[in-house]
Amino acid sequence: MGVRKPEDTRSLALCAHGGAGKTSLAEAMLFDNGNITRMGSVQNGNTVSDFQTEEQKRNISISTSLLTLERKGKTFYVLDAPGYADFTGEMSAAIRVADTAVILVSSVGGIEVQTSKAWEYAEHHNAPVSFVVSKMDRENADFDKVLADIKSQFSQNALSVFLPVGAGEKFTGIVDVLKGKSYSYKPDGSGKFTEGEIPADMADDAASAREALVEAAVEMDDELMEKYLEGETVSEADFERTLKKAIAAKRIMPVFALSSTANIGVPQFMDFVADYFPSPVDIGAVEAEGGAKAEPKTDAPFSALCFKVMADAFVGKLSFIRVYSGTLSSEGGTIYNLDKGEDERISSFKQMTGKDGKDVKEVIAGDIVAIPKLQSARVGHTLAIKGGFSAKFPAIEFPKPVYSVAVSAKTRADEDRLGNAVSRILEEDCSLTFEKNAETRDNVLSGMGDMHINIVLAKLKERYNVDLDTRTPQVPYRETIRKMAEAQGKHKKQSGGHGQYGDVYIRYRPLERGAGFEFIDSVVGGAVPRNFIPAVEKGLREYMTSGPLAGFPVVDFSAELYYGSYHDVDSSEMSFKLATRLSFRKGIMDANPVLLEPVMDVEVTVPDQFMGDVMGDFNSRRGRVMGMEGHGKLQVVKAQVPLAEMFRYATDLRSMTSGEGSFSMEYSHYEEVPGDIAKKVIAAHKKEDEDEE
Fold this sequence. Notes:
alpha+beta; seven-stranded mixed beta sheet; 36 strands
């Protein structure tokens, strides 16, 4: 293969709404390039990309797959990212490390919710973009409409480089407007084609498309632009040179027409990638913290970013890295984790194609490979050589979970295995969280939707033999007071020998929401000795974790100790703590206690036609719509909704919008629970307490 250079690397993230054909395109690329001898299908569960058990069972991509292939002297790293909303974090990470985002748009379904999400991620990471209008062989395929929508909703820089010959059943090939040729395909899915002249009825469209490309490309060179405006002909060499620059600079976003399942247009797409897609050198240096830069050169200090961790049944843990600068050999090599401050030995590098890896001894800037058995590496960690590159790359951003379940082990054996199993799953999946809620004592597993959680539960059972029961988590309600009240607490007990005596007068006042707890010492004249006052505050902080209304924490109040009495012999810290408890229980109940619930900021993105359903649904959930914004044919609704009404929202929204809606959610504030609902909550919790007794 000779000496490899970063200039000869192409990395692309295939992104789209679920079902637009990313995995089918990846499969066709492997087949047409000769990497596989038979093309699998998503429906049959036998594609190279979708190799996990749950992917084959559900016929969808769950995790980003890496495919490696060689074409025209270039190394392709193809990242097949999931398209379903539950796995959007994988898409973001793939775009982050790829040099080009390839966004597939179905010629039938058009722009959908996750199409827009892919565009947003590409914009956020400033990644060059190309569009593939897929499924051109399907009934009602409409290339022109989809192209117009791409231009209006995303960018006018989206320019056709392929035009479809026909559509639906009559889709027989493509016109390459750069080469001025047409390619007619056999209808057997073999990918075999014949080259010919552009059909006469398409000549004008092809000429217009080429002219648009030339105009955009020459803008990258002032001298060339001047010649072009003066009417001089742009040479092929100048055009190709500036075209590549324009794609890297996002001045041109190439648009392709093809069908992966019919295998039409894929070889020409791959050739275009090899010839014109940006290399790491075209992208330029990548910034790290503190203004440091990783130069895409083989002789620069080595640096890489871990963007994915996967458990392999045979190899063990695989850490996927994108190399940004330098060269590293696996022979006696070590790698330094800047985030952990640890050195680790490297056994090998693997160029992955699905679940299969080919060992390579050396990696260079631009490579995307997996390293087996790195213990410390986590997603987002920067890897280098100790004493070399010393700045960390910015962390990879993942969406916050929006769907939660409380989990409990079915058996004692499951409980013993749970901690280790969950920690391994969390290493792989950064859009997943697992925490013990201190207030409700629930073990809460949170992810991006019910499908996400169900797949995690299936993995826990299949890989680690951990079986879990699930239920809706408890809402972390709180209690507070609405008026001022005073209460004495007097604890007096005599049972032979030293007795117990503590006496406190405490004034309870409400504070503004979110203020927490304030203790005020107003005792004068030694009514309560100084050495016992800390016991009063400690008692209050202990007892406020379980309020008298329904056992929830009491918040947003002040407690002022203003009077009391003591006994020279019988008083003690414990006596004053017990006296404080009596005052607290009575005082809070006299201060008009109420129940508080967490309210969430919710942002929902849906197509126009579902706006009415979403708004009506928010009303039924006690929500308040705070505003709306239009983004093309999509609408973003912002609302505030009680958490108690949101546990099943991911599932309900999917059902309500036929899978086209997505949402994000984060905590906003606590507010009072309506009286009728509060009564039910309090009664339910009191019944639970009685049942436990």
